[in-house]
Amino acid sequence: MKGSSRIRLFLMLALASAALLALTACAKARAAAIDYPVRVMLASADNLTVNGDSVVTVDAGGSADFDVTVPDGMKVILSDGAVYENGHITLSDVWYPTTIKATVRDYMTYKYRARATEGGSVTKGEKDWTNVTEDDTVTVSAKAARKKMFAGWTVGKSLEDGGTIISTDSKYTFAIEKNMDLIANFLDDGARIVRYDMNGGKTYDGGASFVDTVVDDFHFYANTLPNYGMFVRDGYVLLGYNTEPDGSGDYYACGWNIISDETVVDLYCVWAEETPSDAFEFKRVGNEYAVTSYSGNYDTIVVPATYRHTNVTTIESKAFSDADADTIILPSTIATVERSAFTSCGLSTLYMPDTITTISDRSFSKCNNFSTLNVYAARTPTYQTADHGTYSIKYERLVYATEHDMRKLVFTSGSNGTYGVLSAQLEEELGGAFYIIDYALHYQTCGMFFIDLISDFLEEDDVFVFMPEPNEFQLGSNAWNAIMWQFFEAAYESVTHVDIRDYKGVFDTFAEFNNTRNWMWPTSYTDYWNGIDRYGDNSWFRSGERSNFIGSQGTYSLGTGHIDVDNINSVFDKCAATGAKTYFSFPSLNKNALVKEGKNESHRMDYENYIRDNLHITIISDIEDYIFEARYMSGTNYHLSTEGSKIRTERLGDDIIRQLNKDYGNGKWMSLK
C-alpha cells in the first residue's frame, strides 16, 4: 500500500471511530433523559452458585449486582467488564441488555526466571526457574555494574534481539499471569538502542528489522542511520524514518537527530515509491544513466535509483525544466545535478542526498516556489572530530531546551561568543533562570541564517542576544559559505527551519563542502572535538597575548557600510514576534586592531547609535566595555583568553540583568518560567 493510501486509511478509521463515540455519547444522553430499564443476565457456569435471581433489571446507566458462591481457591474470569469481589459479581454503567459469561477454574501454576545481559546481575540466577501460583505477586531486582546502566526488563528476548521493555524499574513487582522469562538489560552509560522496522522493505541480508546500539556520552541525541544501502525495497527510495508505521508520528530523514530521551526508540522506514520510468528519458553514460527529460504529470516526483538495473547518477541540464511538481525526491545514487536541471520547475520541497558533489544555485534558477530543502545523509560524516563538526551540539542543545519547555537564553555571533563567553558562569550570574545556549559560530558565516533558525525555537520570555563581529557576514549578508555545511553535517535538519529563497549560495557551497569531504577520513556521529563542551563553549585554557598583538584577521574601523539593515531586521522581527526579548551586545574586540578612525571614541559612538537607530533590536551594552587590551586576547582579534572571558561574561551578565530589570521590573524576571 502506498504511503498516501495508508494515511487515507488511517484517517478514515479515525473518523469512523470518532463517529461511533459520538453516537454512543448521544445514546447515553438520550437514555439519561428517558430513564429506561435494562436487563442483565449472569450465565450459568460450573463451580458457580447464584444466590438469588440470575437475571436482574436495572435503570439505564446503573449497576447490576449478583450474590454468588465460589469454592475456595478458585479463580473467576468474567466477560464484558464485570468484576468479582467478596462473593459478588458486579457490572457497572449498564446501558444495553447484557449477558455476563463466567468461568470458574482452579488457579494455574506458572513459572518464571530472571536473567541478565552482560553488565549487571539479577536476584534470580539464569537457570533458576521458580513455580508460582497464578496472580501471586513476584519481585525481581536488577543491579548494574560500574559504568553500566539498567535499561529495562524484557520478556523472552533481550533489547538488542528485539525484545520490548515492560518496565524500567530496577526493582520490578508484577502479578504472574503466564510463564515469564525475564531479562534485565544493561548498557554502557549513555547508550541508546534504536530499532528499525523495515516496514515493507528488508535489510541488505533479508531481515525485517535492524537494531543499532549507540554509545555516546556527549551528544544530546542519537542520529538515525544514513542511507548506506543497508535497507532496501524494490521500486522505492528510503525517505527516512518515522516513529509510527503509518507515518503519522515524528519524521526523521537519514542522519537526523532523534528527538527522544528514551533509552530505546522504535523507528519505521518511510518509503517513497519511485515514479514510473516511462515518465523519464534516460541516457547511458559509461556504466551509469542520466535523466535527460521528464514528461510525467505527478505532484510528487521520485527519481528512480536505477534504470535497467544500472544506477541513475546524473540529472542533466533542463531535465526538469517547467516540471509542474510540488515535491521532488532524489535517490542516494545521484552525484551530479547540472546547471539549469530544474529551471522554472514548480517544486516547493526537495529531498536531496549528501552524495551530490556537483550542484549549484543555477540548478534551480527561476524556481520561485522552492522554499524547503531536506538534506538526508547517505555518506559517513567526516567533520565530527573537527571543531566545526562538533558545533552540531549547539543545535541539539537548542532543541533539547525547547523539547523540555525550558526558558532559554540564546546568544549567537561569530566565534567571539564560543571563545569569549563562559556559559556556566553566565547561567550562575543569572540565577539559573535561563537554560544557556551558546550558538556562536564562525565570523564569516551567515549570521542572518542562524538568527532565522533560532527564531523558530524562541518562545515568550526567552532571551536572544546578538553580538556580531563587525562585518557583512554577521550583519545582514544572506550568502552562505561551505563552513556552514560543516556545522550541519550531523544536523542536516537545521536547513529545514528557514525558507531557502531568502538565501544565496546554498547549493554552490554544498558542492564545495561535499567535494572537500572526498579526501577526509570518515568519523561517526558519536565522535566530537574535545575543544568544545556540552554548552558549545570552547573549553580549554587560553593564555593572553603580548601587548602589541594584532591577529591575522587584520584591522577594523567599526564603520556601518557593511550592515544590510533590511536583511538583518527581517530576522530580528521574527525573533520579536515570538515574544522573546531581543538584545544586542558587542563582540570582544582587540584594541590594537582598531584602525585610526576606530580608535576615536566619537566614531565608536556613531557606530553604536547607528545600530540603535536602524536595527529592530535593543542595545544593552556599551561598546567601550567590550574593547580589550591585547593581554586579554588569545590567538585572534576576537577571541579572549580564559581570564578575559571571565571579565567579558561578567559584564555581559550585568548588561542582561540591567535590561531584564527594565523590561520586567526589578527582579521580577527571576520568577518567570
Estimated structural class = alpha/beta
Number of strands: 41
CATH hierarchy: architecture of the largest domain: 3-Layer(aba) Sandwich
CATH fold description of the largest domain: Rossmann fold
Helix content: 10-25%
Write structural notes for this entry.
The protein is an alpha/beta fold. The strands form twelve sheets. The chain has a five-stranded mixed β-sheet with strand order 19-17-23-21-22, with no helix packed on it. Strands 24, 25, 27, 28 and 30 form a five-stranded mixed β-sheet that branches. β6 and β7 form a beta hairpin. α5 (423-429) packs parallel to α11, α6 runs parallel beside α9 and α7 crosses α8 (506-517). The two termini are 46 Å apart.
Short synopsis of the structure:
It is built from eleven helices and 41 strands. The protein has 673 residues and is of the alpha/beta class.
Key terms:
Immunoglobulin-like; single chain; 673 residues; 41 strands; disordered N terminus; alpha/beta; five-stranded mixed beta sheet
Write the layout of secondary structure elements.
Blueprint: H1 3-34, E1 37-42, E2 49-50, E3 55-59, E4 62-69, E5 74-78, E6 83-85, E7 88-94, E8 98-100, E9 102-106, E10 109-116, E11 120-122, E12 130-133, E13 137-144, E14 148-155, E15 171-175, E16 180-188, E17 191-197, E18 202-203, E19 209-215, E20 231-232, E21 236-242, E22 251-252, E23 264-273, E24 280-285, E25 288-294, E26 300-302, E27 306-307, E28 310-315, E29 327-329, E30 336-337, E31 349-353, E32 372-376, H2 387-390, H3 392-403, E33 408-412, H4 415-418, H5 423-429, E34 435-438, H6 447-455, E35 463-466, H7 482-488, H8 506-517, H9 565-577, E36 581-584, E37 589-590, H10 601-614, E38 618-619, E39 627-628, E40 633-634, E41 636-640, H11 642-664
Parallel strand pairs: 1-8, 10-16, 17-23, 25-28, 26-29, 28-30, 29-31, 31-32, 33-34, 33-35, 35-36, 36-38, 37-39
Antiparallel strand pairs: 1-3, 2-4, 4-7, 5-9, 6-7, 10-12, 11-13, 13-15, 14-16, 17-19, 18-20, 21-22, 21-23, 24-25, 27-28, 40-41
